[in-house]
Amino acid sequence: MAKAEKSVKTAGKAANVKPVQEQPVLHAIKGGKSAPKNGAAKTAAPAKPAQSKTAMIKALANKPAPAAADDAPVIALDLGPAKLSPAMTAYFKKCQDKLGFVPNVLVAYAFDSTKLEVFAAFYNDLMLGESGLSKLEREMIAVAVSSQNRCYYCLTAHGAAVRQYSGNPLLGEQLVMNYRAARLSKRQRAMLDFAVKLTASPGSVEEGDRERLRRAGFTDRDIWDISAVVGFFNMSNRVASATDMRPNTAYHGQVR
Amino acid sequence: MAKAEKSVKTAGKAANVKPVQEQPVLHAIKGGKSAPKNGAAKTAAPAKPAQSKTAMIKALANKPAPAAADDAPVIALDLGPAKLSPAMTAYFKKCQDKLGFVPNVLVAYAFDSTKLEVFAAFYNDLMLGESGLSKLEREMIAVAVSSQNRCYYCLTAHGAAVRQYSGNPLLGEQLVMNYRAARLSKRQRAMLDFAVKLTASPGSVEEGDRERLRRAGFTDRDIWDISAVVGFFNMSNRVASATDMRPNTAYHGQVR
Amino acid sequence: MAKAEKSVKTAGKAANVKPVQEQPVLHAIKGGKSAPKNGAAKTAAPAKPAQSKTAMIKALANKPAPAAADDAPVIALDLGPAKLSPAMTAYFKKCQDKLGFVPNVLVAYAFDSTKLEVFAAFYNDLMLGESGLSKLEREMIAVAVSSQNRCYYCLTAHGAAVRQYSGNPLLGEQLVMNYRAARLSKRQRAMLDFAVKLTASPGSVEEGDRERLRRAGFTDRDIWDISAVVGFFNMSNRVASATDMRPNTAYHGQVR
Amino acid sequence: MAKAEKSVKTAGKAANVKPVQEQPVLHAIKGGKSAPKNGAAKTAAPAKPAQSKTAMIKALANKPAPAAADDAPVIALDLGPAKLSPAMTAYFKKCQDKLGFVPNVLVAYAFDSTKLEVFAAFYNDLMLGESGLSKLEREMIAVAVSSQNRCYYCLTAHGAAVRQYSGNPLLGEQLVMNYRAARLSKRQRAMLDFAVKLTASPGSVEEGDRERLRRAGFTDRDIWDISAVVGFFNMSNRVASATDMRPNTAYHGQVR
Amino acid sequence: MAKAEKSVKTAGKAANVKPVQEQPVLHAIKGGKSAPKNGAAKTAAPAKPAQSKTAMIKALANKPAPAAADDAPVIALDLGPAKLSPAMTAYFKKCQDKLGFVPNVLVAYAFDSTKLEVFAAFYNDLMLGESGLSKLEREMIAVAVSSQNRCYYCLTAHGAAVRQYSGNPLLGEQLVMNYRAARLSKRQRAMLDFAVKLTASPGSVEEGDRERLRRAGFTDRDIWDISAVVGFFNMSNRVASATDMRPNTAYHGQVR
Amino acid sequence: MAKAEKSVKTAGKAANVKPVQEQPVLHAIKGGKSAPKNGAAKTAAPAKPAQSKTAMIKALANKPAPAAADDAPVIALDLGPAKLSPAMTAYFKKCQDKLGFVPNVLVAYAFDSTKLEVFAAFYNDLMLGESGLSKLEREMIAVAVSSQNRCYYCLTAHGAAVRQYSGNPLLGEQLVMNYRAARLSKRQRAMLDFAVKLTASPGSVEEGDRERLRRAGFTDRDIWDISAVVGFFNMSNRVASATDMRPNTAYHGQVR
Fold first, then answer.
1. Which end of chain B is more exposed for a tag (fewer CB within 10 A), N or C?
2. Contact between D242 and C236 using a beta-carbon 8 Å cutoff
3. Residue among B148, B175, B180 with most chain E CBs within 10 A, to mutate
4. What pTM was computed for the model?
């Protein structure tokens, strides 16, 4: 393992995975609020320094709110936790510090440090990197796609993100329930129409669909980004559904 | 850009992304055959050293077979090509040497070197890394999923991969057309039933579905891997469909 | 209240509508809390006595929370408000007193006092009358059906009711998103499986489906009640969707 | 029960529910013909005065035509018949006198006098009350919705109603089989297109759909009424399918 | 005319098309009743000898019942009528004599005498030739398939055939509306379950489906025949829908 | 049987069914090449003269390619082979001579000489007779329909036919995978859009759909022919799927 740790030390320098110290955490809470206010999350106090990495992973799964205890493990598969690379150990610590918990999707991938790392690299570039789409817009796509696929994990985590980024609790709910009920700009409506069509019947997307996005003001690069986010959540929804991934309970009470 | 190039130079040292010199190419041709035999691909002779990276990307898109010229660009979005990182430049060269062409999905991602790198890292770990699933089985999932989603790009590229890995041209065809027509072992049938259900209605997958896989001999880790491959192609199918990605014509004639 | 009772006394002459003094309000808030605690609803202070019935209807539509203003009228149809019958006037007052607002579905039906009255009578008998199903179970059906139909109004109002009756915020969310993600007893799972099948493909329900409910412990009368609740929300979902009915914003913050 | 009966006695005075003696029966036969002419119904002679209400309910279920005996009970649930309120007793007698039988949907609800009463009140206001839609149009919607949902009970009973109101046996058949095969006015076609869309995918109905109705000449109140009828039969279809409700055989031969 | 008749004279000798004098007419009326009894059809008196074939074709399209006039031509395509071969002329005459009209599907195919002849040969072998399936069973399949496909022409013509062969008007209606509502033997239910599955999702039919038929008592030859009838009506339904084929109005009133 | 054979001898004289000696074989190989070039088919050398007709049928099923042996019988039903009529015997011989094998669909129908004969007559008139549609266009429809229905047999056999008639291997692949990926003329795109809609939801085809074909340049007779081909393959797909019909392996390698 020493060798693995060593190889990770230089990982921060790799161009293709942003150095951890610069990596934004998933769904950073708007306005720097590091701890959600309402009941459920209040109990999710930062765990004490864990003795071992294995213990840490368990500790990082935040505790359910008293009234809503949900004793399910993070996923329904029995996968022994891996020894995290230093980069990923640091990443988890950063999540804990900023969010008060490590998102369960990361805990789920932590059975294999490489898989965790490429997943995090992919995710962070996609959702937090430069794009003509705002972070809110990317989260809106995430929720609209996840609603189409009825993914409990992603609707919970990214529904909270939409509420946070928009400061509009109703918008988050509407995208979870039926994006057509939301009062959207023409741009955002075109974006979500494309996202839902691409999710529901990918084989029927054609030039006319791209043209509608261009007419709504999107560049070709924006169309790539929309498609990439749609694609990503069609992946994540399925990994989450296939493994019965359970969201951190803290999400439920955020920004209501 | 200089900074990006520098940061990429050390990329090979990152533990979490296999060094490029060790990275297998996509669907390496079985038995080390570096050039497909049949007509279409014969014409795709290695391009001469390209003057610039931009030129190289164009050169790498292999030439269509005479009888089946398909003048479409690789994707229907106009994205300027990026300067590839040295790692990715090396990776493209390796593809060219081993396959005779660079798979168009890589050419498509090459508008952004970081996106290309995280995509390739994700792909290579998933499809070529260690797993209880054989590489053929992972390709079988790729094709069954892509058939459900009617993805022209992925059916072409991964249909060829199934033909190559299995040495059975009929199997490739059957998975493209209707996996139920293939004569599969119980294990592989259970695997593809799960893959297609997870693709078609992810929200309805439950413990009973995982149990069926366990009864067919799969471990929990295998179930993760099946789910991850299903998820990945549900992503790739959508990026390909959204962008009208065109497969290299060489695939069509391989292993018929 | 005396006045309300008096005005109701004459209402009691209608055989088919329970006298108002016995009529429970829709989703009475558990434990007698008459005002929701969180921000959005706080602003929904009881309106002053309205000069006219027309004014009252407008006043009763509770005000949106500042951060989530949603200026849509209650429905997207322009229907002049009717003169409410004394019974319905009293009913609205009772809602206002107990809930802090009149549910928008009632405001919507108030364009015609007869329609409002038969709707309220139907609803109250169904959801609050005697049954082998608990009120929570009836609300769970309401949400599972409304999720299948993607009805924003009903998911919001009855999602809140599930959270209230169960005291379990997660349960409400899970039924909104995907009832299969909830940890349900066999009885409740059988109930919701039947509800969703009857919603999605009514023409395929047969004796085997009723038998499954009987095996889960339901009587034939319970099966009627389940079917009647499923039917009712398949009606309400469609009236709400057809008219773009908007839920009272107070619901969103309740029992999170 | 005495109390309930008493409260019913005065029911006729309530403005909001039409007095029973004025309540039209379901699908009153056009032109005052109180007995259908063709074979099947001829045999459904009025039952003798029943000794008890329980007996009466059984007697009211009309006898099947000889060639088409269908020994199924009215519904597949074993629900003991209730003592009917005087209002409902009178209502059943009126059905018997005018139609020659009591529609089985009413017999089905007769296990609970209150449920029967609110159902009848709801139904009569909706289908026979004032509206910009003719009674035929409301029945046309009933059949188009029931065809979408493949509801044997409602297609039979309301198919007969369309044949009666229109005097056009083909129209009834066409709406049962495929409303697109009927030669409809633009108004009626728009009405049924809306009805079928609202039935098949309620969550996708939006302002554009309402606009199409307005352009076809419907007022906002008409749109409410269309939606309410669509909603009602989406309810009735499901109650009928869930309980295997069997139509009176007399319907089959009417107005062929 | 003489020439055409002559070329047709030898047609009867062709082995692959049964000699006309032995060809049964479509849906021959049970018990040799050559004229339906009820009103609509009464008016469809045999046309007088037509002067020309063109006139004859028009004359053969039976007249609509007074109350249900439907002025549509037989199909919505403008195809000049062909000169019928003597065999087909004789066949049409036989239909007229036995049924009182020529089924409109034959009138539709009469734009091309060869197409008419191969269609009639195919149809007659399939529906009236030797088989382990009774003629009623073949018609039941026709209706169940046509209901799935919502084909107005076939539901009308073959719904009448089911009523005739079974002498059970309800059975015809039930198969039109929802075959699950019919009280069927296990054999016939298995047959229609297979027919509807093969219609709705042919690509998912597998050995298990054939096994279910075998367990219900069907031989392999019977399974072929079921499949062939299902296939045939999936063809006819589409030709009829694509051309807006209108059924003879006489069917509507038969055996009600 | 003697009589049947005799009646067949004169079949050639019947105007309405092309004489066998003039009947084109299914998918005649373009340019008179009677033997496919690539490996799989090379092994399918013409069988020696069979001793008996039964033996001949077996012999005609061409041998699988070594690498892709597929030991399944032609269909999954056990139907004894019939004595073929002289006409059909000649027809099979002609297939063998021209194609190098008898298409398995004909082998499948050979359990009953009459069924084989009417099937072949129907097929040959439809696919090889005079029409405003080219033979390639008819094959394109066959493949697009078979793709919608996921029919392994027809996709294989008619996919090969599209490759042969068009000389474009990619076109065949694209129609198998997703016809929207093919670069089609407006005419052919309109044709396939109609074909796929008529396949997927026949009950929703209306005048507007026919109008679109007319605007794309099709005559009413062309529309009949398109509909007839769509109908035919909706039949064949279901017979093939219901019986697990296996295509001759020679098709797989043709014109790649």
1. N
2. no
3. B180
4. 0.83
SS3 for E14?
coil
The runs of H, that is alpha helices, within chain D are 2-9, 39-42, 53-60, 86-99, 104-109, 113-128, 135-149, 152-166, 169-177, 186-200, 207-215, 220-243, 250-253
Q: Does E207 touch chain B (CB under 8 A)?
A: no
Q: How many angstroms away from the CA of A174 is the closest CA of chain C?
A: 7
Chain C interface disruption, residue of E175, E180, E184, E193, most C CBs within 10 A: E180
CA separation for the pair F188, A245 (Å, rounded): 46
CB proximity list for D254: less than 8 A, separation 6 or greater = D29, D36, D38, D41, D160, D163, D164
Residue F126's Cα: distance from chain center in Å? 10
Tokens 């996709």 -> residue: F155
Does any CB of chain E come closer than 8 Å to the CB of residue D169?
yes
- pLDDT tens series, chain D, 256 aa: 333 333 322 222 323 333 333 445 665 433 333 333 343 333 333 333 334 433 334 434 443 333 334 456 999 999 988 999 999 999 999 999 999 999 999 999 999 999 999 999 999 999 999 999 999 999 999 999 999 999 999 999 999 999 999 999 999 999 999 999 999 999 999 999 999 999 999 999 999 999 999 999 999 999 999 999 999 999 999 999 999 999 999 999 999 9
Residue type at position B114 = T
Q: Which of F14, F78, F115 is closest, CB to CB, to E14?
A: F14
Task: Report the greatest alpha carbon distance in chain C.
Answer: 57
**Quick check: C245 contacting A, CB < 8 Å?**
no
SS3 B181: helix
Q: What is the DSSP string of D9-71?
A: HTGGG-TTS--GGGPPPTTPPGGG--S--SHHHHT-PPPPPPSSHHHHHHHHSPPPPGGG---
Integer Cα distance of A190 and A197 in angstroms = 11
Q: Is A175's Cβ below 8 Å from some Cβ in B?
A: no
DSSP notation for B11-36 = GGG-TTS--GGGPPPTTPPGGG--S-
